[in-house]
Amino acid sequence: MNIQWYPGHMTKARRMMQENIKLIDIVIELLDARAPLSSRNPDIDSLANNKFRLVILNKSDLADDEVNENWKKYFNDKGINVVSINAKSGSGMKNITAVVQEACKEKIERDRKRGILNRPIRAMIVGIPNVGKSTFINSYAKKACTKVGNKPGVTKGKQWIKINKNIELLDTPGILWPKFEDDTVGKHLAFIGSINDEILQKVELTCELIDFMKMNYPGIINGRYGVDEDNSASDILSEIAKNRGCLMKGNELDYEKAAMIVLDEFRGGVLGRMSVERP
After folding, report:
1. Per-residue pLDDT averaged across 41-68, rounded?
2. Which pTM was predicted?
3. Alpha-carbon distance 237 to 234, whole Å?
4. CATH number, domain 201-267, options 3.40.50.300, 1.10.1580.10, 3.30.1640.10, 3.50.30.10
C-alpha cells in the first residue's frame, strides 16, 4: 500500500516557516503519542536548527502508557525536552510553560545580561495535519483562538497568539513531507487518521491494522467484535461486517463500512490504549 499526499498549501507552509523561523526562540513540535516517529516531520530538524526544542506527545491518553514512558526516555536521551499531554481534556497542559522556560533559560539569561527584561519567549508550534495542534493551542491559551476541525488541513494561515505575559505563540499550518521514505510511515499515519481517508484504500488499511493488533495486542479484536483471531484479517473483517449488520443492496457485505467501524473505534480509543510505534 503506497500512500502519498502533499497538497499545495503545504509547500506554501514550509516556505512560511522558513521566513518566520528567525523570529523564534523555541520550536514546539506536536507529535501523536501513538506514532511519534511517523508523526515527526523530518524537515523540522533542518528548519529549527540552532533553536531551542520541545516535543509534546499529544493524545497520550490513546497510546499505550508504558510505551509513552519509553518514548519520553527516548527523546530525553537525545537532549530534547518532552511533555506528554491530552490537549482535549487538558491533562498535562499545566507543565508546559515551566518546561518552555526551562528550555529557554540560556536565552532568558542572555537577555537579562543585556538589560532586556520580561521580553516574552516567542515559540513556533509545528506539527503534521490532524495531530491536535489547534486543540492544543486553544487549551494552552484557555480560549478559542484558532479554528479547530476534526479533519487534516483546517489551519491554513499563520497567526500569533499571546499565551500569557511570558510566551507568544506562532501557529503554522500542519505540514507533511513530499515523499515518505518508508511505506510504514504512511501506513502508521493512515492508521491514526493523519491522512485524509478519502484517498485511502480503507479495506486494505483495516486488514493491515487488524494484523497489527493481532500481533501486538492479542485478544482485543476478539473481545470487542467476538471473532476468532486465528482467522485471516480479511475473514475477520467479513465476520465484523456480519456481526455489525454492514450490508449493501442484495444483502452483500459492506466491507468498507465495516472497515470504517474498526478504524474509527481504533482511533477513538474504543479498542483500548495502543501505540503503533515503539522506540
Report:
1. 91
2. 0.86
3. 5
4. 1.10.1580.10
